[in-house]
Specification:
Blueprint: E1 10-14, H1 19-32, H2 39-52, E2 61-62, E3 65-68, E4 75-85, E5 95-104, H3 111-122, H4 126-134, H5 138-150
Parallel strand pairs: 1-4, 2-5, 3-5
Antiparallel strand pairs: 4-5
Helix pairs in contact: 1-2
Length: about 150
């Protein structure tokens, strides 16, 4: 199994007050994790994507994604908020779990599409959604996402 999503990329019990605050947090963590040297450019990439249409899926999940030359390596950062946030979503319900995809510009057509499709498949799996909503075990969350990314 790949170790694409590391335990260090999973943040639980967060207390963000808005979608923008959560995206800022993800951008800052991407810098802290070495995924980027420019958190502001990553944040701007998230905001630009949000303006194109909702990244909120269903059942309290969002999949915000940023493609930017400022992103050095593809990464997934997971944030579980302690309360649901207003977030444009397909079911018009607020979001409490964000699975953020960060992709370098050069991998936009490959890595980005693969991560997005794998994440979408995971979010159709009730067992996966229940796990993410009910546990704060960072290792279990990372392992569940890695398993989904690895599956053909």
């Amino acid at each position: 199994m790949s170790e694409f999503v590391k335990e260090a990329n999973v943040f639980v019990n967060q207390s963000m007050e808005s979608r923008e605050a959560l995206l800022r947090f993800v951008s800052d963590q991407a810098a802290a994790l070495g995924v980027t040297d420019d958190a502001d450019a990553v944040y701007d990439a998230f905001l630009a994507r949000e303006e194109m249409g909702e990244t909120g899926m269903t059942d309290g999940f969002a999949v915000p994604h940023a493609k930017s030359a400022a992103i050095k390596d593809a990464a997934v950062i997971v944030v579980k908020n302690d309360h649901a946030l207003e977030w444009p979503s397909f079911d018009e319900k607020p979001v409490d779990v964000a699975i953020a995809l960060l992709v370098p510009d050069g991998e936009a057509g490959t890595t980005h599409i693969r991560l997005l499709s794998k994440t979408a498949v995971l979010l159709m799996n009730d067992e996966f959604k229940n796990l993410l909503h009910t546990t704060d075990d960072k290792a279990a969350i990372a392992a569940a996402i890695n398993k989904g990314i690895d599956e053909e």
